[in-house]
Design goal:
The chain is of the alpha/beta class. Helices cover about 40% and strands about 10% of the residues.
């Protein structure tokens, strides 16, 4: 298994998508007035969180003045932005130690959760092309493969949902019928991680009421239940194995 450090090195030095690299660097030069005195990250953004996580949270892509500035997903897009909206739901479910995400030095810690994105560079208008999504997918797969305990994917938005289904297909776990994206939907495939779908906490969704705090909390409640069920099954398997071993040696 490749280490997370080497995977992250490969992510932040990636230059596969010229359009995205050009855009991120231009945003870093032009800057938003409120961040005029800051140095923007501008490189592709790797995931972060608990390396032993059982829940992997997959977003769309860095925000131009959020993660493209701070270097951490869902971080720095302002009070009430997608980062705070997401962290409030994680905090309510015991997956984060605080309900906000303002900067890389804000003390945020995730527990049993890891956050990453389907696309690692900020795209113009938040719309990566199909080719850019495909070019970035190996980074997503590599990061997922380096997280040994992940059993639940929380897909924030349709692009993340499609990326999650692609991850399952690459494991040979393809549903007989392609599932439809539905907020708080739970999609189980035998022998593969469960997918929990949720609307992306973009301002477009949260400001219009399409996604509310209780709705996102519910999605993560379902993810926690799926994770807990898997952990309980692993304990049961361990106990059965132990009993069988004792029986065989006649103790």
């Amino acid at each position: 298994m490749t280490s997370l450090d080497s995977i992250h090195d490969a992510i932040i030095t990636c230059t596969r998508c010229a359009r995205l690299r050009t855009y991120c660097e231009r945003i870093g030069r032009e800057k938003r007035a409120a961040f005029r005195d800051q140095i923007y990250w501008t490189k592709p953004v790797a995931g972060f969180g608990d390396p032993q996580a059982s829940i992997a949270i997959i977003g769309l892509a860095p925000a131009a003045h959020g993660a493209n500035r701070t270097g951490r997903n869902f971080t720095g897009d302002g009070a009430g932005g997608s980062g705070d909206f997401l962290m409030a739901a994680l905090h309510a479910n015991g997956l984060a130690n605080q309900p906000t995400s303002r900067g890389v030095d804000d003390g945020l810690q995730l527990k049993d959760a890891w956050i990453m994105a389907a696309v690692r560079c900020a795209p113009p208008d938040n719309k990566p092309t199909p080719g850019e999504i495909a070019a970035c997918h190996p980074h997503l797969r590599a990061e997922i493969d380096a997280l040994p305990n992940v059993r639940v994917y929380v897909a924030l938005g349709r692009i993340a949902f499609d990326a999650s289904l692609r991850l399952l297909a690459e494991r040979g776990a393809k549903p007989k019928k392609r599932p439809l994206f539905e907020h708080a939907g739970v999609y189980r495939t035998p022998g593969a991680p469960t997918i929990v779908a949720a609307y992306h906490p973009s301002r477009q969704n949260t400001n219009t009421g399409r996604l509310t705090p209780p709705m996102l909390r519910e999605a993560f409640q379902r993810a926690r239940r799926e994770s807990a069920a898997w952990k309980a099954s692993m304990v049961a398997v361990g106990e059965n194995t132990k009993r069988e071993s004792v029986r065989k040696i006649g103790l």
